[in-house]
């Protein structure tokens, strides 16, 4: 082994898992965004438990969650299995969205609100909500703090689809412009970031709740 390889192997390995919450009870199919009182469905709680079991034998030392109910409820079984508290962090909350509270699933619902169509003119920013650059920046700041706290171990951050996908794009050097329907970030999925020292070694993706995804109801994401 070369001297550089030996030095690299001696550096601490730190993993931060970005866990998306499970299915939400949302029978009216509204874009709930940051609205309060949107909780996991029965299926969503099962998804959260599968994610927790998947992480049960990992060296988790820190758990952080978005303050929204669905994220906290997803974090709970992970915390219980590892005997750890959950720290709430506003920086990993859902993205702001002007369509919050409306039935706009798939974008077609916008036709019912023509006055808001002007907000959809620029998908690069996006014009309907929090700029991707700002979303990625706040997620990165939260991840950096968790990575420092868990250095040499593993940590979990429970967040939402848009923040997780956007920060993944930032780490991988992808363009922020994308079709939200094609995000690789299903319910209760894990986007795992691995560092050796301060160098990002890899970004991996897994779906602990894959067996339950076909049972999820439309409009239960975000």
TrEMBL record:
Alphabetical list of SMART domains matching this protein: PGAM
Q: Which GO terms describe its molecular function?
A: isomerase activity; phosphatase activity
Q: Which GO terms describe its cellular component?
A: cytoplasm
Matching entries from InterPro entries are given as:
His_Pase_superF_clade-1, His_PPase_superfam, PGM_Phosphatase
Q: Which Pfam families match?
A: His_Phos_1
Supply the alphabetized keyword list. Answer: Isomerase
Q: What EC number(s) does the entry state?
A: 5.4.2.1
| Name the record gives this protein | Putative phosphoglycerate mutase (GpmB)
What organism is the protein native to? Phycicoccus elongatus Lp2
């Amino acid at each position: 082994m070369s001297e550089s390889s030996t030095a690299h192997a001696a550096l601490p390995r730190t993993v931060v898992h970005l866990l998306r919450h499970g299915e939400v009870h949302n029978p009216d199919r509204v874009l709930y965004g940051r609205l309060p009182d949107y909780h996991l469905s029965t299926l969503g709680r099962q998804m959260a438990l599968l994610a927790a079991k998947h992480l049960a034998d990992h060296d988790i030392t820190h758990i952080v969650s978005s303050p929204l109910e669905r994220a906290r409820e997803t974090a709970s079984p992970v915390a219980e299995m590892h005997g750890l508290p959950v720290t709430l962090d506003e920086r990993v909350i859902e993205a702001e969205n002007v369509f919050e509270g409306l039935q706009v699933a798939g974008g077609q619902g916008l036709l019912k609100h023509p006055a808001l169509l002007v907000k959809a003119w620029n998908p690069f920013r996006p014009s309907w909500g929090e700029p991707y650059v700002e979303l990625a920046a706040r997620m990165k700041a939260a991840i950096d703090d968790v990575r420092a706290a868990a250095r040499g171990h593993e940590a979990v951050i429970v967040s939402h689809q848009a923040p997780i996908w956007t920060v993944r794009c930032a780490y991988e050097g992808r363009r922020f412009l994308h079709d939200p329907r094609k995000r690789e970030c299903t319910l209760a999925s894990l986007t795992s970031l691995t560092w050796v020292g301060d160098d990002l070694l890899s970004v991996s993706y897994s779906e602990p709740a894959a067996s339950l995804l076909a049972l999820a109801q439309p409009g239960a994401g975000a």
